[in-house]
Amino acid sequence: MPAATGSRVFGIDIGGSGIKCAVVDVCAGRLLTERRKVATPAESTPEVVGSLVATLIRDAGWQGLVGVAFPAVIKHGVAVTAANVDTSWIGTNADEVFTTATGQDVTVLNDADAAGLAEVRFGAARGVPGVVILLTFGTGIGSGLFLDGKLVPNTELGHLEVDGRDAETRAAASVREREDLSYRVWAKRVQRYMSRVEALFSPDLFVVGGGVSRKADRWVPLLDLRTPVKPAELLNEAGIVGAALAAVERRAVEPQGG
User: Fold this and answer.
1) What is the DSSP letter of 216?
2) Angle between helices 111-122 and 238-253 in degrees, nearest 10
3) Which CATH architecture does the domain made up of 8-113+237-253 adopt?
4) Which pLDDT score, from 0 to 100, does residue 254 have?
5) What is the DSSP string of 60-117?
6) How far apart are CA 200 and CA 180, in angstroms?
7) Which residues of 59-79 are buried (b: 16+ CB within 10 A; e: fewer)?
8) Do domains 8-113+237-253 and 127-232 have the same CATH topology?
9) Eight-state DSSP code of residue 207
10) How far apart are CA 199 and CA 218, in angstroms?
11) C-alpha distances out from residue 223 to 20, 85, 114, 170, 249, Å
């Protein structure tokens, strides 16, 4: 186990079906240990998930900063929504839940924001000035908005109304699978959605992530947007890396006690 230093942080990515974790070198944006994945408990309450996260950290022999990517809007550590986890998370201080359960210093942020942070620092959007929008296509559509590399948190652009419908109910990757759509047909829906985002924000770059980004060559070339579109580069590691980055960056800006 690599020693806990200022450049090493334990990153955790919590999803509706799985929880992934590893030690991250936040200076290089890479995992220092093998990524571990366990199933998200069916009873995904704060108590149950907090206990499981504590077990993962204990099993890793980790002591130090921890970052957690979580499927919810997170404001000042508090979960305002809950996507694919128990609704008892709503109104719960997730920072406190994990900090108390683990005995470590834990920072929690939205999962798409975490993935975007990793891509801006080390991936497809590295060094890109101006407005960058990451869109993750999975069960729903997550989003991360950045201005000159700085995160504007909790944008939830997957819930924009497009043609009278919540966008992710038409253009999420899960919809393509459920309705057995070809990539060409699905790309038309993605085009309609991303055109709406483009009109609202005029970004300098779109980064598209989620599992479907592995097959970007089958649908990204079908998009016709003014804005360049790049597939995400960190893939399944993005949430872990971004969560770790958020933890160390929050520590860097917090006033130190004295």
Assistant:
1) G
2) 90
3) 2-Layer Sandwich (3.30)
4) 61
5) TT--SEEEEEESS-EETTEES--SSS-GGGTT-BHHHHHHHHHSSEEEEEEHHHHHHH
6) 30
7) eeebebbbbbbbbbbbeebbb
8) yes
9) E
10) 24
11) 31, 32, 25, 16, 35
Domain spans of the chain?
8-113+237-253, 127-232
Task: Convert 168-189 to b/e letters by CB count within 10 Å (16 or more is b).
Answer: bebbbbbbbeeeeeebeebbbb
Q: b/e per residue, 84-105, with b = 16+ CB within 10 A?
A: ebbeebeebbbbebbbebbebb
The answer to whether the beta carbons of residues 69 and 109 sit under 8 Å apart is: yes
Task: For residue range 96-137, list pLDDT tens digits in order.
Answer: 999 999 999 999 999 999 999 999 999 999 999 999 999 999
Place of tokens 């909790």: 154
Alpha carbons 130 and 27: distance in angstroms, whole number: 23
Q: Strands 65-70 and 105-110, how do they pair?
A: parallel
Rounded to whole angstroms, the Cα distance separating 97 from 92 reads 8
20 near 37, Cβ under 8 Å? yes
CATH among 3.40.190.10, 3.10.180.10, 3.30.450.40, 3.30.420.40 for 127-232: 3.30.420.40
- How much is the pTM? 0.91
**Using alpha carbons only, how large is the chain's radius of gyration in Å?**
18
Please give the Cα distance from 16 to 71 (Å, whole number): 8
Which two structure tokens, joined as six digits, stand for 200?
A: 């609202």
